[in-house]
TrEMBL record:
GO cellular component: cytosol
Organism phylogeny: Bacteria, Pseudomonadati, Spirochaetota, Spirochaetia, Spirochaetales
Gene that encodes the chain: nusG
Keywords, alphabetical: Transcription, Transcription antitermination, Transcription regulation, Transcription termination
This protein's name: Transcription termination/antitermination protein NusG
HAMAP family per the UniProt record, alphabetical: NusG
Family: Belongs to the NusG family.
The keyword Transcription appears for this protein: yes
Length: 186
């Protein structure tokens, strides 16, 4: 048996439909629930900032891909995989050509994806989506430098931080602020 998370490639926009179809095949007995254990479309929480307003949304972490937890038997794995591959919108398993046995992703990769989705405990920061560019003028709206305006010197999207150069006592001073602490000046 090869228990693990497998990545299934799908047509774009078909992820939820295929997840429902696999669950339906498990319900009606075409797929064994002891072999196909779980199906997930990995989603993450995203804070979008549009026109100065914050909107919480959920976005696909891996567009066109879904996670399938399976315990593939040594004999009979072809039946399970071909049943899943025949679903309309499925192009195949990642890392396997048609007719060959798929390989699960590593436990570390699966843990990282599931932590981002909030399925398992771990650091799950909300990602912030806002378009800033170097040299753009912004106003700081929160924190110790609230009401200051400055120019963006550096953007760090991994940490959701900006380095903004503001004028403090007549001197240009770089300040690191969170993306939620600034707004664009129109």
């Amino acid at each position: 048996m090869a228990k693990g998370w497998y990545i299934l490639h799908t047509y774009s926009g078909y992820e939820n439909k295929i997840e429902r179809e696999i669950r339906k095949l498990i319900e009606v007995g075409e797929l064994d629930s002891s072999v196909v254990l779980d199906v997930k479309v990995p989603l993450e929480d995203v804070v979008e900032i549009k026109d100065g307003k914050k909107h919480n949304t959920r976005r696909k972490i891996l567009p066109s891909y879904i996670l399938v937890e399976m315990d593939l038997p040594d004999l009979g794995w072809k039946n399970v995989c071909s049943t899943i591959r025949r679903i309309n919108g499925v192009t195949g398993f990642v890392g396997a050509s048609s007719g060959s046995r798929p390989y699960p992703i590593s436990n570390d990769e699966a843990r990282d994806i599931l932590q981002k989705t909030g399925e398992i405990k771990g650091e799950k920061p909300s990602r912030i989506v806002q378009s800033f560019s170097k040299g753009e003028t912004v106003k700081i709206i929160d924190g110790p430098f609230a009401t200051f305006s400055g120019t963006i010197e550096e953007i760090n999207p991994e940490r959701n931080k900006l380095r903004v150069v503001v004028g403090v006592f007549g001197r240009a001073t770089p300040v690191e602020v969170d993306l939620l602490q600034v707004e664009k000046i129109m």
